[in-house]
Amino acid sequence: MSTKEILTTLIKEYGGTQQSFARIIGVTQPSVANWIAKDNIPERGIALIMQHCPEVDLDWLKGRTDVPEHRSVNMSAALTGAPFYPYLPASAGQLEMGDEDHSKERINIPGIQAEAFFPVTGSSMDPTIENGDIIGVKRLDSLERIRPNDIYLIFTTDSERMVKRIRSVDPAEAWLTLHSDNPVYEPFLVLKSQIASVYRVICLIRKF
Questions:
Q1: In contact, 82 and 136? CB cutoff 8 Å
Q2: 18 near 84, Cβ under 8 Å?
Q3: CA geometry: angle at 194 spanning 142 and 91, to 5°?
Q4: Which one, of 84, 101, 105, lies nearest residue 159 by Cα?
Q5: 197: which residues sit within 8 A by CB, 6+ positions away?
Q6: Beta strands in 98-150 (DSSP E)
Q7: Mean pLDDT of 172-177
Q8: Predicted structure pTM score
Q9: Which residues of 66-90 are buried (b: 16+ CB within 10 A; e: fewer)?
Q10: Has residue 31 got a pLDDT over 50?
């Protein structure tokens, strides 16, 4: 396995994007992109990955071909599931996103292809999503893929994240209208240019 393939696997399992993976290990996104382009991880990068992703096998990370088969299997098992960010809640209101959370916890639900899991705070999506619920999300590569009336986790360029329902998308308009399920909260507009990324909520975990 090449270094590029190793990094692609790590990015997929830890955050889903170069930017998220870079934040987890404490480097910049251009640094990760440079490692991929050069097909090489510097020693400092290896040390940071091992520090923040302790499940990773060092020999596997260095691309050694003589790694015993059982160690490769263990490595695969360690990377199952999607990362869970217990200290980086998705707000059913609005809440600033910090860079300090580098969670190594993971959730694996057979048949659910979530890329990450977040706890939800707030009451604006009651009764559909309640305070303390956990949502599993999957990133959209384009706003054009938004499905009307589905629920989404929206990250803005101002480092806010919110869980809202999007009723419709008009390509001619410069904004989206975000809706809460709790009738106490009024719909509001957000400019498309202020949206950094959108994740569709694909599953819900609720404690009884």
A1: yes
A2: no
A3: 90
A4: 101
A5: 17, 139, 140, 154, 155
A6: 105-107, 116-121, 134-139
A7: 92
A8: 0.60
A9: ebeeeeeeebeebbebbbbbeebbb
A10: yes
Does the structure show a pLDDT above 80 at 119? yes
Q: What is the rounded distance in angstroms from the CA atom of residue 189 to the CA atom of residue 40? A: 44
Q: Residue 76: in which H helix or E strand, if any?
A: helix 69-78
Predicted local confidence at residue 12, as pLDDT: 79
Distance of CA 8 to the CA centre of its chain: 15
| C-alpha R_g of the chain | 19
Cβ-contact 164, 152 below 8 angstroms:
yes
Q: Which of 199, 188, 20, 21 is nearest to 114 (CA)?
A: 199
Report the relative pairing of strands 116-121 and 90-91 from DSSP bridges.
parallel
Provide the β-strand partners of residue 188.
Answer: 178
CA distance 153 to 188: 15
Q: Which residue type, as a one-letter code, is found at position 61?
A: L
